[in-house]
């Protein structure tokens, strides 16, 4: 097992070149300029999930016309491309005394499994404790107030309710006329509004918005290219969607946002803005191919994330129903 310093060094060596730019950017916030307080109250820990409601669920349920379901999660395993040093290992063991001794007069046998994995691998949700700026996170919560090596004291996956709402898919391959959309292509208000208009959908408060870029198809065929960059959400696009009151934003890419970023001096600029400033959740490695192939623009989105106590992220398999 790697010692902590060795692990940090390994992570540093695996970072793409654009992350290794000068970290002392003029955009870096100072400790004296924290995020605005949450509009949901000084003690709020749920962020944009507050925009969900029973009425929204009932409206979204009306979108079901065929009963067809779509698994939005991708299979997660040892070969899944992941941000280093994240990895996945599974060990299958037999029950009882470890020798596979049958149980009872009916000679019952079975198998169990032990999984050692990072939660931020494959299809995942990023929680509000995942990224911030200068150790300040959502609702002006400092890291020393909630971060523990034994698990988060706030913002853990176990504290989130189910996310059931209207889903909107924006097919950016259709908008740009190419699949996959080239790496570093940033989706900002102009592109988002144009894609929504062409599909005849209007993004509303409480929605989950997903982008289809065609990038996920590279995960198996060219994993090195898949991880080297990606098209995705730009910084102004993030502000725009958050301002509409969306609950979560996702894509068929490993980090949602355009990489390399629009400002090469910044590292993952969209993540802290969505999570720490607005409380908007991030969904990564979404399997949007079938939805796009069927021309689905809106659907019922259903996610019941695993309620693992104190976790920052979670491996997920949301379901779209139309």
Q: Biggest sheet, open or closed, and with what strands and sense?
A: 9 strands, mixed
Taken from the alpha-carbon principal axes, the silhouette is globular
Q: Write the CATH architecture name.
A: 3-Layer(bba) Sandwich
Poorly predicted regions: 1-14, 17-33
Q: What proportion of the residues form beta strands (DSSP E)?
A: 15-25%
The CATH topology label is: Glucose Oxidase, domain 1
At the first level of CATH, the class is: Alpha Beta
Structural class determined from secondary elements: alpha/beta
Provide a count of the helices: 10
- Average pLDDT confidence is 91
**Head-to-tail CA distance between termini:** 46 Å
Radius of gyration: 20 Å
Give the number of DSSP strands.
Answer: 15
Helix and strand element order: HHEEEEEEHEHEHEHHEHEHEHEEE
CATH superfamily: Putative cyclase
Q: What is the helical fraction, as a range of percent?
A: 10-25%
Could you write a compact summary of the structure shown?
The protein has helices at 4-14, 54-61, 143-146, 172-176, 189-199, 218-221, 223-228, 235-243, 270-278, 289-293, and strands spanning 69-71, 88-94, 111-117, 124-126, 136-137, 141-142, 163-171, 186-187, 208-212, 232-233, 248-251, 281-284, 298-303, 313-315, 319-321.
């Amino acid at each position: 097992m790697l010692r902590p310093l060795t692990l940090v060094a390994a992570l540093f060596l695996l970072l793409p070149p654009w992350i290794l730019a000068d970290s002392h950017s003029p955009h870096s916030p100072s400790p004296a300029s924290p995020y605005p307080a949450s509009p949901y109250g000084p003690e709020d820990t749920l962020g944009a999930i507050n925009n969900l409601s029973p009425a929204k669920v009932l409206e979204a349920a009306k979108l079901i016309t065929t009963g067809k379901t779509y698994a939005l999660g991708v299979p997660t395993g040892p070969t899944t491309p992941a941000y280093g040093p994240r990895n996945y290992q599974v060990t299958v063991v037999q029950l009882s005394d470890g020798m596979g001794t049958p149980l009872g007069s009916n000679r019952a046998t079975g198998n169990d499994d032990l999984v050692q994995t990072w939660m931020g691998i494959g299809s995942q949700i990023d929680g509000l404790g995942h990224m911030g700026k200068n150790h300040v996170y959502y609702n002006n919560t400092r890291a020393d107030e909630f971060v523990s090596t034994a698990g988060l004291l706030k913002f853990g996956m176990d504290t989130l309710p189910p996310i059931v709402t209207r889903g909107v898919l924006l097919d950016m391959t259709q908008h740009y006329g190419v699949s996959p959309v080239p790496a570093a292509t940033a989706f900002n208000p102009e592109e988002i509004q144009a894609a929504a208009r062409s599909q005849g959908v209007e993004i509303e408060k409480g929605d989950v918005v997903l982008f289809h870029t065609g990038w996920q198809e590279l995960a198996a065929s060219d994993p090195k290219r898949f991880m080297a960059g990606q098209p995705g959400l730009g910084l102004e696009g993030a502000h725009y969607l958050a301002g509409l009151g969306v609950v979560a934003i996702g894509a068929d890419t490993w980090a949602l946002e355009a990489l390399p970023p629009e400002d090469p001096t910044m590292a993952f600029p969209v993540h802290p803005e969505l999570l720490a400033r607005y409380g908007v959740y991030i969904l990564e490695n979404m399997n949007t191919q079938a939805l796009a192939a069927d021309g689905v623009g809106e659907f019922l989105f259903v996610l019941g994330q695993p309620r693992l106590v104190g976790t920052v992220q979670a491996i997920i398999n949301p379901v779209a129903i139309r």
